[in-house]
Amino acid sequence: MDIFLQQLINGLVVGSIYALIALGYTMVYGIMQLINFAHGEIVMIGAMVTITCINLLIGAGVNLPGPLLLLAGLLMAIPVSMLLGYTIERVAYRPLRRAPRLAPLITAIGVSIVLQQAAMLIWGRNYRPFPQILPTTVHDFFGAAITDLQIAIVILSLVLMGGLFWLIERTKLGRAMRATAQNPDVAGLMGVNINTVISMTFIIGSSLGAVAGVMVAANYDQAHAYMGFMIGLKAFTAAVLGGIGNIGGAVVGGLLLGIIESLGSGYLGDLTGGFLGSHYKDIFAFVVLIGVLVFRPSGLLGERVAERA
Amino acid sequence: MQSKKQIITFAALAVVLAILPWAITGGFENGKSWLRAVDFALLYIMLALGLNIVVGFAGLLDLGYIAFYAVGAYSFALLNSPHLAAVLPAWLMHPPLLVMLLIAACVAGVFGVLLGTPTLKLRGDYLAIVTLGFGEIIRIFLNNLDRPVNITNGPQGINNISKVNIAGYDLGRPIEWFGLKFDTVHLYYYLILAFCCLIIFVTLRLQRSRIGRAWVAIREDEIAANAMGINTRNVKLLAFAMGASFGGVSGALFASFQGFVSPESFVLMESIMVLCMVVLGGMGHIPGVILGAILVSITPEVLRDVINPLQSAVFGERLFDPENLRMLIFGLAMIIIMLLRPEGLWPSKRRAREFHEHEEEAKA
C-alpha cells in the first residue's frame, strides 16, 4: 500500500510539472492552432538561467537561505523566458500567421534547434547539477516519503494554475484571450488588439514554462541542454490527452499522465510477470494516449471541433 | 517524354547522374565520404517521397514516419546477419535482393496499416501526436527487445549485416569493370539511385492516378470527398501503407549500406527532419520534395567542412564548438527559408497560386 501511495505522490509531483508546461502549449494552441515546438526549450532555458544565477550568487559570496537564492534565480529566469517567448512569436510565428499551417510548425522546429544548440554553446554539453541549497527533510506521509521540495512543487503549481484560471475567467485580458481563441477576426472587430493578446499569451505561457523548468531541475537535481525536448514532448502529450486548447484539460492531462507514468513504471514489471520492465514507461504514456484518442478523438475534456474549411 | 526538349533534358540528367560519383571521388580530397553523403541523400529522397504521399498528397500530418524506415532496416538486418541465423529457418535467410525489398516493403506497409487503423477518426494535430507516439513506441521496443528473448539486440543494435549480392557480384567488394574500379560506395550509389528512380516513377504515376486524385480530394475536404463517393477509410489507409512501404524499402537499403543498425538512427529528430524536407521543398510537389531532401541532408555535411575555416575567417580563431554552431546555422536557415517562402522552395504552380490568392484576400 505504501508503495502505491509513494508512486502516487511521485506521479502527482511530476504531473503538476507536466501540467504547468502543458498550459503553455494549450494556451498557444487554443489561440493560434499552432504546436509551439520551442516551448520545451523555453523550459530548459528557464532551468539553465536559474542554475547559473544561483551559482553566480553563491560564487559572489551572497549568504542567503536556499529558498531565497532560488527565488532570486527565478526572478532572473522568468523575465528571460518572457522575453524569449515574445521574441519567438514576433520573429518566427507572426509573419506566418496567414501562411499554410505547416509553415509555422517548421519555423517552430527551427527555433527549437537554434535554442538547443545555443544552449549547448553557452552551457556546454554536460549535465549541470542543481546547487544543493534546498533543505532535504523527508516527511512521513502514511508510510510514504515526501520532501519539502515535492510539497512546494505541488502547492506552487496549484497556485499558478489557480492564478491562470482567475486571469482567464475574471480579467479583461482573459476575456480578450477567450474571444481571440473563438474567432480572431471578430475579436479584432470588437476592439481586441489581437497582436497584444497573442504576445501576452506567449509571455504568460513562457513564464509558467520557466517556473516548471526550475521545478524539473530541482526535482531531478540536474539540467541539460537537451532536457527540453523530452519534457516538452511529455507535456504536449498531456495537453492532447486532456483536449488541446482546453485549459482545464491541460491540468487534468498533465496530472493524469504523471500518475499513469509513475504507477506504470512501478507496476509494469509485476503486471506482465517481468516481461516488460519499467523502461517501458514511456510506451505506457503513449499507449494510454492512443487508447484515449481512439474513444475520444478530441481528448478527455476537448469539445468536438467542427470541420474547419 | 513527349517533346524533343524533354528528351534532351532527360538524357542530360541521366549522363550527369551516371558521371556524378566519379566526379565526386575524382574531384575532392575526401571524395568517398562525400559520395557516402550523396548515397544517404538518395535514401532521404525515397523517405521524403514516401512521407510526401501521407503529408503532401493525403494531408495527414505524420510525425513518426521514421518508424517505417526502422521497420525496413530491421527486417533487412534480421534476415541478413548472423544475429538470428541460428533460430530462423535457413531458407528464410539471405533472400535475393528483390524478394528482400518486397518483404521490407510489405512488413513496413503492415505497420503503416497498424498505425492508420486506430487513427482514422483523428484530425490534424491529434493525428500528429499519435503518429509521434507510434514512432517512439517502435523505437522503445527496438531498444528493449533484447530480453527476455533477444530479438533486436537492444541499444547495441545489429552488426555484420551482409552487403547486397546481385547476380554473383558482392557489393561489399570493389569490382573492376572497363578499367574502372567500382568501390562499395560507387556500387551502392547506382543501386540506391536505381530504386530512387523507381520510386520517383511510381510516385509520379500515383499522383496522376485515380488514387492520387482521391488523396488530394481528401486533403482539400474530407467530407466533400466522401460525398463524391471516395471510400475515405480505405484511401487513407492506402496512403499510410504506401508511404510506409517506401520508407521500408529505403530502410532496407540503409541497413545493407551501413552494415549496422541501432535504435539511435531512428529517433524522433529524424522524423522531423524528413518532414522538414517535404515542407521546405514544397509539399505535394515531387521535384520540390526531391530538392528539399537533397538540401536538408547535404547542407549539414557541407557546413561540417565549411564551419571551421569560416570561424577562423570571421573571428580569427575557433571560438565555438563546430558541431553546435553548424546545427545552429542549419536551424536559422530553416527559419529564414520558411519566412521568405512559406509555400516551400519549389511549390507546385497550383499551390503557389492558391497561396497568393490567400495573400490577396488578406490584403483586400
What this model shows, in words?
The complex is a heterodimer of chains A (309) and B (364). Chain A has 11 helices and 4 strands. The mean pLDDT of chain A is 89. Chain A has one domain: ABC transporter involved in vitamin B12 uptake, BtuC (Orthogonal Bundle), CATH 1.10.3470. Helices cover 73% and strands 4% of the residues of chain A. Chain A has a two-stranded antiparallel ribbon with strand order 1-4. Chain A has a two-stranded antiparallel sheet with strand order 2-3. The radius of gyration of chain A is 20 Å and the shape is globular. Chain A has 309 residues and is mainly alpha-helical. With 364 residues, chain B is an all-alpha fold. Chain B has one domain: ABC transporter involved in vitamin B12 uptake, BtuC. Helices cover 70% and strands 3% of the residues of chain B. Chain B is built from 13 helices and 4 strands. At the A-B interface, helix 4, helix 9 and helix 11 of A face helix 5, helix 10, helix 12 and helix 13 of B.
How would you briefly describe this protein structure?
The complex is a heterodimer of chains A (309) and B (364). By secondary structure, chain A is mainly alpha-helical.
- Main-sheet strand order of chain B equals 1-2
The CATH topology of chain B turns out to be: ABC transporter involved in vitamin B12 uptake, BtuC
Total of DSSP H or I helical runs spanning 4+ residues of chain A: 11
Q: What would the average pLDDT of chain B be, to the nearest integer?
A: 88
How many β-strand runs of chain B?
A: 4
Distance between the termini of chain A: 52 Å
Proportion in β-strands of chain A: under 5%
Helix/strand-derived class of chain B? mainly alpha
- Estimate the mean pLDDT confidence of chain A: 89
Largest interface pair: A-B, 54 and 53 residues
Just name the CATH architecture of chain B.
Answer: Orthogonal Bundle
**In terms of quaternary structure, what is this?**
heterodimer
Annotation field: number of helices of chain B: 13
Number of strands of chain A: 4
CATH class descriptor name of chain B: Mainly Alpha
Note the overall shape of chain A: globular
Radius of gyration of chain A: 20 Å
